């Protein structure tokens, strides 16, 4: 989901402009279920290629679609795909809490974990391909892991450390983590539940049962070299948040664990762990996506609201 507030006026104007044309809405409809190149879109809408190219540029500038150049019979072709399923615009004026000036945001590449304790099946795919050998936990400390775009394992955990660069007297109101992930099944299986747990500062926050491992279509961001048959392709974008009231999953209260249970005064970093517990009812593994694979162009995103 693309979330915009009235405080983000430049982005709001770009998105509103992109959605203000029937031609661009028709393009988004065509991209609802599959990727298409510019010539295919022009043919479907019975419009000149130049007109489609201009409108594609507007949608891409707004961040609503993603384009990539792929080999064609003659030269290359620009292939388009939709980035977001939903767009949410919050037009309420901020009163300080949650104002852009009071938000600290950091995106952590998925390979930049500082510790791992995992069990096979497991593996890492970077932007250059698969790290060999597969199913070797020791490989999770290979230097090339820093370039990971897909990480998977059956059970265990990986740990990240997020720096907190906040003003000296800042009071944290909420901490939020979002990422794209799914279960890890042989090949893929939409009915493969997995109990995925997150921890903040070694305190368990929430366990979410992912319904399955998704691979019936190509991920929207996946490059041409990424295997298409019988492989995981994309995940679900999930958001965990903790504030003074408790812990939330996609804005639904799931636990009474609150900020006072995890924060330490004058703390300079947050430890974030994601994994599968050894005694979980559904040990179905995990696939964690980077910003160049799957459906969503982001890594692990931390957002801190403070006053």
UniProtKB/TrEMBL annotation:
Domain HTH arsR-type per the UniProt entry, residue ranges: 14-82
SUPFAM superfamilies: Winged helix' DNA-binding domain
Superkingdom of the source species: Bacteria
InterPro entries xref list: ArsR-like_HTH, HTH_ArsR_DNA-bd_dom, WH-like_DNA-bd_sf, WH_DNA-bd_sf
Family matches, as Pfam families: HTH_5 (PF01022)
Alphabetical UniProt keywords: DNA-binding
SMART domains per record: HTH_ARSR
Name the UniProt record assigns to this protein: Helix-turn-helix domain-containing protein
Taxon lineage: Bacteria, Bacillati, Bacillota, Bacilli, Bacillales
């Amino acid at each position: 989901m693309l979330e915009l507030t009235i405080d983000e006026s430049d982005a709001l104007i770009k998105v509103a402009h992109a959605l203000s044309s029937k031609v661009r809405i028709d393009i988004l409809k065509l991209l609802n279920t599959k990727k298409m190149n510019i010539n295919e879109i022009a043919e479907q809408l019975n419009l000149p290629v130049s007109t489609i190219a201009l409108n594609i540029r507007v949608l891409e500038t707004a961040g609503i679609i993603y384009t990539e150049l792929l080999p064609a019979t003659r030269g290359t072709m620009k292939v388009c795909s939709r980035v977001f399923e939903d767009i949410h615009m919050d037009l309420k004026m901020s009163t300080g809490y949650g104002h852009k000036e009071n938000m600290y945001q950091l995106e952590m590449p998925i390979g930049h974990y500082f510790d791992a304790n995992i069990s096979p099946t497991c593996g890492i795919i970077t932007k250059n391909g698969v790290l060999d050998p597969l199913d070797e936990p020791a490989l999770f400390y290979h230097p090339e892991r820093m370039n990971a775009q897909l990480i998977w394992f059956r059970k265990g955990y990986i740990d990240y450390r997020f720096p907190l660069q906040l003003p000296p007297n800042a009071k944290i109101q909420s901490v939020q983590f979002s990422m794209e992930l799914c279960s890890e099944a042989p090949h893929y299986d939409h009915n493969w539940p997995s109990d995925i747990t997150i921890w903040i500062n070694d305190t368990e926050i929430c366990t979410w049962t992912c319904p399955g491992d998704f691979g019936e279509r190509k991920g929207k961001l996946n490059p041409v070299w990424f295997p298409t048959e019988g492989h995981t392709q994309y995940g679900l974008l999930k958001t965990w948040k903790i504030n003074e009231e408790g812990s939330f999953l996609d804005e639904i209260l799931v636990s009474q664990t609150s900020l006072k249970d995890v924060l330490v005064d004058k703390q300079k970093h947050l430890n974030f762990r994601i994994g599968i517990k050894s005694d979980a009812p559904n040990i179905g593994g995990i696939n964690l996506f980077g910003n160049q694979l799957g459906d969503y162009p982001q890594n692990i995103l931390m957002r801190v609201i403070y006053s």
